[in-house]
Amino acid sequence: MEKEAVYLNVYDLKIPEDPTAVGRWNSYLYWGGLGLYHSGVQVHGKEYAFGGSACSETGVFSVRPRNAPAAVFRESLLVGYTEMPAAQVDSLLLDLAAAYPGNSYNLLQRNCNHFADELSVLLTGNHAPYWINRMAWLGSQLKCVLPEGFDDPFGASNSSSELLRATPVFCIPSIDDAIEESEATQNSSSDDEN
Question: Is 38 a catalytic residue?
Answer without folding.
Answer: yes
